[in-house]
Write a structure and sequence with these properties.
alpha/beta; D-Maltodextrin-Binding Protein, domain 2; 2 domains; five-stranded mixed beta sheet; 10 strands; 38% helix
């Protein structure tokens, strides 16, 4: 039996992993795969890849590229979701801020430095013509930390995945004043180098299983109702999310794609300099 630990955010994007684990599909291949939720997001997962707490992580593209470039001993083995992530820009429902342009000098709640909420705040600043070096951040850990920080005035706005935070908009906790889509495929699967060296075949089998699951995911009977109930979302929001979300289904990640993403990240001041794309990825489909 091969033991592997996989981590991801506790959001609707990762429900396919829940299904494969529930159906014991990895056990049938003599793989003991254990899932760990990371409500703190990509920054937390990057740290856990570095220290060996997880072997495989479903992480935001911009976060893991930046962290591998900074020395994380891992490789991107494939994209997981090809479509962009829609980042909602949220203020407290009681806030006086009305438009994105009003936020130039405001304090931003981020889960941690290097996280998607941090890096996408920089992307949004670039989009607005602001100077990224002037941005002010408050580290809050996770979604609940963002809610608390906006409520008590420690921060002014918070960027998080549009649909995950929609219930907080609906219940009057947040007011959403805009969106900022990622200019690249949003989620990739990363694996520690040590695990790729020791358990290449098992990692490939894990990818085969999850890719098969996402290929049929939208055809599951009543999947919209199942997701709405599990993640406490309105049915209409889950249906919108399903319509715009495109899973990768197993196509290999290419050096050309990673180079294009890095070019954009450098242009957007999210990445200081490009690295050789071949050192960031491992093609599992040769």
């Amino acid at each position: 039996m091969t033991y592997l630990k996989v981590g991801g955010v506790p959001e609707h994007f990762n429900y396919p992993w829940y299904l494969t684990l529930k159906n014991k599909e990895y056990s049938k291949e003599n793989i003991n795969l254990r899932w760990q939720d990371f409500p703190g997001g990509t920054g937390d997962m990057c740290a856990s890849l570095r220290n060996g707490k997880v072997d495989i992580a479903i992480v935001l593209t911009e976060g893991i590229i930046k962290d591998i470039a900074a020395g994380n001993p891992s490789k991107i083995v494939q994209t997981y979701v090809n479509s962009p992530l829609i980042w909602g820009i949220h203020v407290s429902a009681k806030s006086d801020f009305k438009k994105i342009k009003d936020l130039e000098h405001a304090t931003i709640a981020i889960s941690r430095f290097g996280s998607g909420s941090h890096l996408m705040a920089i992307v949004n600043a670039f989009n607005q013509g602001w100077k990224p070096e002037n941005l002010k951040f408050k580290v809050i850990g996770n979604l609940q930390g963002g809610i608390d920080a906006l409520e008590n005035g420690e921060a002014d706005y918070f960027m998080w995945e549009h649909f995950t935070t929609k219930p907080q908009v609906d219940n009057g906790t947040f007011r959403q004043i805009g969106n900022c889509p990622t200019p690249w495929p949003c989620f990739v699967i990363a694996v520690r180098n040590e695990v790729l060296e020791k358990n290449y075949k098992e990692v490939k089998k894990v990818l085969d299983i999850i890719n098969k699951q996402v290929s049929d995911f939208k055809n599951i009977k009543n999947i919209d109702e199942i997701l709405a109930k599990r993640y406490e979302q309105r049915l209409i929001d889950i249906q919108k999310w399903l319509k715009i979300t495109v899973w990768n289904k197993g196509k290999p990640i290419t050096k050309n794609l990673v180079t294009r993403i890095q070019n954009k990240m450098v242009r957007l001041n999210v990445l200081k300099e490009k690295r050789s794309s071949s050192k960031l990825i491992k093609n599992m489909y040769l």
